[in-house]
Amino acid sequence: PRGSTEENMSRVEAAAVTRDYALKPRLEYRTVAGVNGPLVILENVRRPRFAEIVNLTLGDGTQRSGQVLEVAGSKAVVQVFEGTSGIDNTKTSVEFSGNILTTPVSEDMLGRIFNGSGKP
């Protein structure tokens, strides 16, 4: 019986090591100061990074993504990839992912066409 308990613990430990973790806390703000075309201006943002990917959640739950184009102190200008209709300064939350846009590359991609987000 003792061996089976140790085996179960080993399985639990192995599962914990291989689990896909999401790093938290990611910084989330509700400080939209304005919208101008495809751009969203955020104020009172703590250490925004140039080219960082952000995830926007609109008041109705719709998800959009964007990228930081400009940083000036505690202000950040974000280009929204899917358009800015429906984004407002009271209900929209913006989460900074801490990551930049990346695309894996392989020889299978040769001759194919992709959009700016790397999707076929």
Brief summary:
The chain is α+β, with helices and mostly antiparallel strands. Helix content is 14%, strand content 35%. GO terms for molecular function: proton-transporting ATPase activity, rotational mechanism.
| Major sheet | 7 strands, antiparallel
Tell me which CATH architecture applies here.
Answer: Beta Barrel
Write down the oligomeric state. single chain
Helical amount: 10-25%
Q: What ranges have pLDDT less than 50 throughout 5 or more consecutive residues? A: none
How are helices and strands ordered from N to C? HEEEEEEE
Protein structure class? alpha+beta
**Gross geometry:** extended
**Strands in their spatial order, largest beta sheet:** 1-7-4-5-6-3-2
**What is the fold-level CATH name, i.e. the topology?**
Elongation Factor Tu (Ef-tu), domain 3
CATH class: Mainly Beta
Count of beta strands: 7
* Rg value: 20 Å
Number of helices: 1
The total domain count is 1
From the N-terminal CA to the C-terminal CA, the straight-line distance is: 54 Å
What key attributes describe this structure?
35% strand; alpha+beta; 7 strands; 120 residues; 7-stranded antiparallel beta sheet
